[in-house]
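BUG-321 | component: ligand-complex export | severity: low

The export step for S-adenosylmethionine jobs runs without errors, but we want the raw record kept on the ticket for reference. Input record follows.
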Amino acid sequence: MIEMKVSLKKIKKLIASPLNDLVFKAQKVHKKNFKKSDVQLASLISIKTGSCPEDCKYCPQSAHYNVELKKENLIDLEKVKAAAIRAKKNGADRFCMGAAWKKLKDGNDLNLVVKMIKEIKSLNLEACVTLGTITQNQAKALKKAGLDAYNHNIDTSPEYYGEIISTRNFEERLDTIKNVREAGISVCCGGIIGMGESWHDRARMLEVIANLNPQPESVPINSLVPVPGTPLGNQKPIEPIELVRMIATARIILPKSRIRLSAGRKNLSNETQILCLLSGANSIFYGDSLLTTANNDMENDKKLISSFKEVDEKINNNIHL
Ligand code: SAM
Ligand code: DTB
Ligand code: SF4
């Protein structure tokens, strides 16, 4: 297979193109690659909360900052099972478990996570975990348990990475992604906007993601949730259209990936969210909370998805004319 490189120049040209051209292009790519109005609902649970040794400046779970947070050791299987059953009843398709670890430990932690994955799979949900750095053998064990996807974000550009995290480097992130891929688990890899990065950094982040070979099946685009007590707690929110530009560009250069409109939806109007879905996002995090912060109301989300489907149908059938 010939590897097609997505160039930084192309990405920058897309991101900066007139909004209607960008969104139109993204819609064409989207319609070619996905069934219309297919929006996956992914629910999240934090299985181990806070006291993380890493110093990610955006993260309320880092032990380096003074954040009001209920810390919790690895929770038990029954709690996960109950949450997954609830998520399924509420209509979720995918269940993602996150742990505030630098790396996964063999023994009790790995064994319990394996049991959790089996439980999720027995409910016929897609299973995703995000547990920090993992080794080749751990990736194999997670795959054997039935894990569908592993989330490991690069978060920002390689150049800006050091401004945001000092306790690990960018290359280590790529190593774990490689271990996940080689074990046959699908890759979920995205990042965050709104951390003070430039448009160059945003384009570079997309460049790295789009040139993973094969491309990640799933790409979460998070907007920073500024949490008081973290170094980015006072960060100014992004303009909603900046997010639309990121999503539409991601859709074009990652034509077959599921682009996830992720953290930060609480600050977005319904209209902005619909515009994100029309620009190529085809998943949201769904449920009362993200990992440690609040998420949008589920009833409102159900209404949002049905208004999106309505608008999308109209566009498909040209009855808006
Ligand atoms: N500890 C593991 C790791 O960092 O890979 C897994 C959990 S970590 C919380 C998962 C992802 O959540 C991060 O990579 C980051 O992209 C996102 N995240 C964390 N805090 C956030 C915030 N305040 N706003 C937006 N995204 C955030
Ligand atoms: C991802 O990219 N975003 C989700 C999921 N992967 C694990 C996490 C968002 C966390 C937002 C802050 C919080 O709730 O702690
Ligand atoms: Fe720890 Fe992950 Fe938060 Fe970084 S993003 S502090 S690694 S939980």
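Assignee comment: Attached the raw record above. The pocket of iron/sulfur cluster (ligand 3) is lined by residues 52, 54, 56, 59, 61-62, 100, 102, 132 (CB under 6 Å).
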